[in-house]
Amino acid sequence: MKVLITTVPFGEKNTLPLEMLQGTKVEYVINPLNRKLTEGDLMEMVHDYDIIIAGTEPITEAVLEKASKLKMISRVGIGLDSVDLIAARNRGVKVSYTPDAPAPAVAELTMGLLITLLRSVHVSNLQMHNGLWHRYFGKRIADSTIGVIGVGRIGTRVLNRTRAFGTPRLLVNDLSPNHELSRKFKLEWVDKETIYREADAISLHLPLTTSTKDMIKSKQLLMMKPDAVIINTSRGGIVNENDLYEVMKSGHLNGAAIDVFNDEPYSGNLTKLENCILTAHMGSMSVDCRTRMEIEATEEAVRFINGEALESEVPEIEYISQQHEL
């Protein structure tokens, strides 16, 4: 069998995933372009591989049509919007993922961004580097209303971490409200519009679907408090980047932190705003979590190579969800 590792970096901080592949005697190739691959790149590469260990590269129906030997996709991560699950199933391609591994790192980055935004640390840092001295008033987490949209693995961890800072008001929204969480946290389950209007800080933890694509545009951004902040560490495309730029350029919103983008690498207008924190899709990039993601994805590939049952195969609900999006 031949394995194509499309995600980069891979095996950089811990070589165990590569050693595991070497132990199976399969031939493997790591992304030769050393950047995020496009659909066109993949269409040229995939024809001779049985397994893809993938990041967020677009494994579309067109790519799968070129992958005549492909039998398995092992996702390094949780998001599945980059993989056409229905097309994969129709071709008999199994898909697995690592849903729990990235969550602690993404939640911690979210908390770091939250503190940075509420205290204008990012703006002060830039101004200091440019010879300016200005002391900003800010807000403490405990004295803020925090809105969390999407209360799954990562959203729940964010809520848990806010408790270390006191007892902020917590507004939450999810398609499937988990009212048992209210026993652990003092939560207010509300609609998204209430969060837009009342939160001092909003954090998004959602998959990208047709219903969440451009979920937050000018209308929603202008509903927010003038000094509110917004964080997106989930998926690019949920916040409309152009609308966010125009709204922030007008002076509405105190700040934003965006880790995920429609097109990556990103070089758009948000780079012009000093109060907008931009990070290079690095939510999962703590050494421990990234290593765990790579190991778990490789373990699944090795199981497949050895003819063993997969332990983290994508569940049926994800296929149903994508089917409904069509």
UniProtKB/TrEMBL annotation:
A Pfam cross-reference name: 2-Hacid_dh
Signal peptide range in chain numbering: none
GO molecular function: NAD binding; oxidoreductase activity, acting on the CH-OH group of donors, NAD or NADP as acceptor
Organism of derivation: Candidatus Micropelagius thuwalensis
Residues annotated as domain D-isomer specific 2-hydroxyacid dehydrogenase catalytic: 27-314
D-isomer specific 2-hydroxyacid dehydrogenase NAD-binding domain mapped to chain residues: 111-283
Key words of the record: NAD, Oxidoreductase
Protein name as annotated: Bifunctional DNA primase/polymerase protein
Family: Belongs to the D-isomer specific 2-hydroxyacid dehydrogenase family.
